[in-house]
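I have a small job for you when you get a moment. Can you supply me with one protein entry, sequence and fold together? It will help me judge whether the discrete encoding reads sensibly. Write everything out right here, beneath this request:
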Amino acid sequence: MSRIFKELQAKKVVTAAVMSTALGVTGVAGGLATASASQTKSATPPPLVMESSQESSVTQTFNPFQSNSASTTLGMNSLIYEPLLQFDPANTSKVYDFLATGYKWGNKGMSITFTIRSGVKWNNGTPFSAADVAYTYGLLKSDATLNTSGLPLTGVSQSGNSVTLSFSSPQYDNLQAIASVYIVPKAIWSTIADPATFTDANPVGTGPFMFSSYNTSGITLKANPGYWQANSVPEVIFPTYASSSAAEDALLNGTATWEGNFIPGIQTTFGKGKNHILYFAPVNTNAFFPNLHKFPTNQVAVRHAISLGINRTLIGRIGESGLEAPVTNAGGLTLPAFTQYLTPAAKKLTENVTPNIAAARKVLEKAGWHMKGHFFYNKKGKELTLQISDPSNYSDYYSDDGLAVKELRAVGFNAKLVGDSDNGWYADIADGGFQLTQHWSLTSINPYNLYENWLGSSVSSSAGNFERLANPKVNKMLASVAGQSTVAGEAKALLPVEKFVASYYPVIPTVYGAAFMEANSTNYTNWPTSKNTYESGSPNAPTNEVVILHLKPVG
């Protein structure tokens, strides 16, 4: 299945040595230069057909702040709208300049000033400016529904081509969440009565593509002729697929160029083909999310028993076809990506990778549950029932859930698997209509974002914190992490957060999630790989923009 990265993504560790560093002005790192008319080729390359999320139907909606808009679910936001900076979760040292050409921290991490790129135009031909950036961040400051990552903004100001953002606490380790906001045109959005519900059917952005056509078969974007960088792809098609098998068939028969799905046996069915590329960069931590406001998952003992009862090894080996390794650290830190943050004390937070049924039962018995027949009951005679839900077309998660159901029934849960539709699942996550669900985590290049998205009470429930944790002590811990300017300082500050995850089970880590990439290089080359890690390779936003701008047409 596709790993939708959402719209906040990760951020870079900013040490004391680079806090005042201004980034270069060459556009995408790696040497892509500003486009010019002389670069246009006479032979037009073919369209790029891509799928970042298998959707059976979409609407003509492009609001980048809505989690259920077509541009968000299909992963096209960054191709239309752009952020200030881009990042590479496969190589955490990389930062790409986009609408900003530099940044500088101030006030001990409580403010940041971005230098805004000049010479950029919106795709309707009007000039882009720092005023648009200031307006966009002002929207987030005034409307919490748009501020999905919970940025603690206290002020936004503009002076010439500079925009300064102020925060209520130091944000050194929150750079990517800050700089990954999609910038919208003030001239248009300031006339919208409610930006949060705006359908944005004909979007005006600064990105390499613009809206071309919509029908029940999908959405087509065409190249923005006035884009400020070189772009060799003339058209991108986002088709809808009736099922995951239809998406897989499109990949195997060559009608799809680029997908990001879990496909069992992909190494043999696709990986051995000519011009076929596979790349599975380990970039996040998957987890079961228990609803903390529904019985019985609002009970710590129940969550502890779930963690003890599941088989992380089988989830990785069978459910994920060996492409994702079991989580070994109970604190949830993504490994090996964040090994440098793993303190000796954190290493002691070991995770069980195989079930411990006896221990799980003891935890429940100590909490007052008793076994009657095959299942546990509480003192009031209420059965320990559990519904694990995920979209049935997410074949790996559905398989993972099936394994967990079998294992938890052996513990004494009356566990059941519930297959949902994509839209139904997204709605349940957003409004809390679930008991237990598996979800990918935020893909980040700094562990602060992983934990902030998991646990931060200011994070929108449609973008993270799906369990709906609201714990002032945890918020204070997270604020301490964000304020650290060194790796050593952040690692130390992370320990209380890791211990909280390991003992309170607000999320239940399962496997280290991969950014799935399957690509066909027949028409385009220079795809990311394990040896060319300029980006993770996922066709999701925002990383897909970096990949497309690196692609070179064959011939």
Summary: DSSP finds 17 helices and 20 strands in the chain. Confidence is low (pLDDT under 50) at residues 1-42. Residues 1-257+523-555 form a domain with the D-Maltodextrin-Binding Protein; domain 2 fold (CATH 3.40.190.10). The CA atoms of residues 57 and 240 lie 6 Å apart.
